[in-house]
Amino acid sequence: MESADIGRFSLLLLNPSEIYFEDFIVHCVCYSEINGKWNRVLFNEKGRLKVCSESLIFDPSDVRFPVYKIHYVEVNVVSSDISCFSKYAFQEGFEKKSIQFGIEASEVVCMKQYNQICPYEANKAKHVFIFDLVYASLTDCLPSIEQLRRASSLATGERAAMISTIVHSRLSRMKFDASWLESINESIIMESMAFKIAPLVKNPGKILLTCSNIYFQSFNNLETEPVWKIRISDISKVVRRRHLLRQVGLEIFSKYDSASFYFSFSTSTERDDFYGKLIQQDILMADDRLEEKLLQWQNGVVSNYDYLMYLNSLADRSRKDFAQYPVFPWILKDYSSSTLDLNDRNVYRDLSKPIGALNSVRLARLKSRYDEMQEPKFLYGTHYSTPGFVVYYLIRKIPECNLCLQNGRFDHSDRIFKNLRETWDNCFNSDSDVKELIPEFYEESDGAFLMNRKDIDFGVTSDGKRVHHVELPPWAQSGDEFLHKMREALESDYASSCLNEWIDLIFGYKQRGTEAQKANNVFFHLTYEGAVDLDSSANADERSSLEAQISEFGQTPKQIFTSPHPRRRLLAIPSNFPLDGAMRRESKPGGGGEEQQQQQQQQQQHAETEVETVDLTAVEKTTGEHRRSLAQSQITIDGWNKLVESSFHRGYEPITTAPVTVRCDL
Q1: Which is nearest to 383 in space by CA: 231, 527, 184?
Q2: Coil, helix or strand at residue 300
Q3: Segment 567-621, tens digit of pLDDT
Q4: CA angle, corner 521, sides to 517 and 524, nearest 5?
Q5: In what order do the strands lie in the sheet with 67-71?
Q6: Rounded to whole angstroms, what are the CA distances from 590 to 68, 358, 596?
Q7: pLDDT tens-digit map of 651-660
Q8: Which of 31, 54, 261, 629 has most Cβ atoms within 10 angstroms of its Cβ?
Q9: Predicted local distance difference test score (pLDDT) of residue 94
Q10: What is the C-alpha separation between 507 and 663, in angstroms, rounded?
Q11: Percent share of the chain, pLDDT over 90
């Protein structure tokens, strides 16, 4: 196998979960049958032949030609006896060589012609490819192709089991190249087989733990580096993850940027063994205790966005895994007004209800169906977070992922993400659409996922409009303004006071069981952790079907809380804040007026909710700036208590342990 010249090839050109084994430099001649006549398509074209678990891919060096994908199930003949292809191969000066083999296929898929991102074209004409191996021998290549072709003829589960056996066998024979070690004094602590996980794809290899580094060596030549190295001293956090509802994942975060490495091991025992040995290496990891984070959020030190990202991570959600991508709520429901008043509660969505329960008419229909179901029952046949929904939102930013997930096609133009109001309306009304949002909607970035900067042709809608940039609400004149207002809405006092109720639904005690039924928050049973044990499934077809269900149709986050989540405290106003007289709180000693008595009664009534009651309508901007400055200050809990004690008018009770029950296995 030669060193990689990746060209146009990527794992996203393969089927989800398909494995890339190796490639060979070749010269190729190709003929296709059109109307009963054979026509030459390629002649002595140099390129790379990729051997994959479900297909062969030929990537010509000349980008004027497409990348050809040949599924094994479409292959009629594979032979090193070139004479059987002579009726159409030996023409126009074709030179017969000893290191050649031919393939006849009933269909080929053409991709990325001129290196353009566009839907794949399935060409159902019969094709013949003659490959001349430049450096390798037939025994290096042909036996693997014939073995994988035999696997393609098996039933789905048996095919997956056979391919898994082939991968495991190759990895067992693979030896880590010790020349890549940083130092000859570096002691090896553990070596294991693992998959490097990225959105929609996985790549097998060997992972090595030493006293000072982690190394990953892919068993193919796809990676940009032959061996990836992560210095243990550069690690900020190591998180055990579930992957395909199995406790086999491990995500490693860097101190210096947002990059992370996600690995999946064969068994939970191997993963836990690696994790245990890794954390013994004096890693100075960030203190990320749940109790500390909760109290910081509850008291305004941590923003709503950061707290939700933290909970997503704790619940095994990762940007590396589209089946468990971080989930964020729809905060706003007004995407049609010309102006947006974030002090008006009518612009906000009810966070105490799941998306599917917001529309009472739709909910009545779903509950009627639910009552007639046999066990296990579910209200919603779809989920609020799936790989399909992630690529739906990000189609302009990562269109290759959409093509991978949609069998080489973009969705119908009418269904592509193109308009915020239409997307919200569909989520509010449709029986089959209850999706929430993703973090990108609340990140003040360049808004690349809203703009068709790659100028991809997504087609024309049924009313004749070209699908191009996402149509923003009238209250936003640019992507930057839209994202800024979305973030303001997420950090608003209204959202802050209600966010705990959404957390109860997604990560908390209303996620499952009787409370989930009361809250109309019941999804298909296979989306929940613990619903199925894949390792105990003896039937290969059943296991393959379950894995497809789990990976494609959504996974409910790991449950974190088993009792109601505390509400966030709304900050009282420090005395040095520049308030107008009409907004300043009256605090005359000994006052007994009717207005002041009403104020005191209101304060008493709300004491149990742990929210400081003060009208912040006219000073939301000021308090928002105050909260943001605290969030940026990395202030400690003790420091926060001292600050509040010295700055606020009224007495303040120091932060104590929040009354919330957390799952003991986190």
Answers
A1: 527
A2: coil
A3: 998 854 344 433 333 333 333 333 444 444 454 444 444 333 333 322 333 333 4
A4: 95
A5: 75-79, 100-105, 127-133, 20-34, 37-52, 55-60, 67-71, 108-111, 121-123
A6: 86, 47, 10
A7: 334 444 445 7
A8: 31
A9: 53
A10: 11
A11: 67
Q: Exposed, middle or buried, 521 (CB in 10 Å: 0-12/13-18/19+)?
A: buried
Smallest CA-to-CA distance from 292 within 646, 653, 635 is with: 635
Give 271-323 pLDDT, tens digit per residue: 999 999 998 887 666 667 899 999 999 999 999 999 999 999 999 999 999 99
Provide the 10 A C-beta neighbour count for residue 73.
14
Is the separation of the CB atoms in 512 and 559 below 8 Å? Answer: yes
Least Cα distance to 127 among 74, 79, 91 occurs for: 74
Cβ atoms of residues 386 and 440 within 8 Å: no
Q: How many CA atoms lie within 13 A of 170 on its CB side?
A: 17
Amino acid residing at 60: P
Q: How far is 381 from 397, CA to CA, in rounded Å?
A: 28
Return the sign of the alpha-carbon dihedral for residues 359, 364, 369, 374: positive
Query: With the CA atoms of 573, 308, 406 and 454 taken in that order, what torsion angle do they form, in degrees rounded to the nearest 10?
Result: 50
Give backbone dihedrals phi and psi of 493, rounded to 5 degrees, phi first: -65, -35
pTM equals: 0.85
CA distance 166 to 126: 29
- Write out the two tokens for 255: 């101190």
Report the alpha-carbon distance of residue 142 to residue 156 in Å, rounded.
23
Of all residues in the chain, what percent are helix, strand and coil, respectively (each to 5)?
A: 35, 20, 45
Residue 225: φ, ψ to 5°:
-120, 140
Q: What angle do CA 630, 635, 637 make, to 5 degrees?
A: 115
Taken as a whole, the chain contains a residue count of: 666
Alpha helices by DSSP H, listed for 134-212, are 138-152, 156-173
Q: Which amino acid is at 203?
A: N
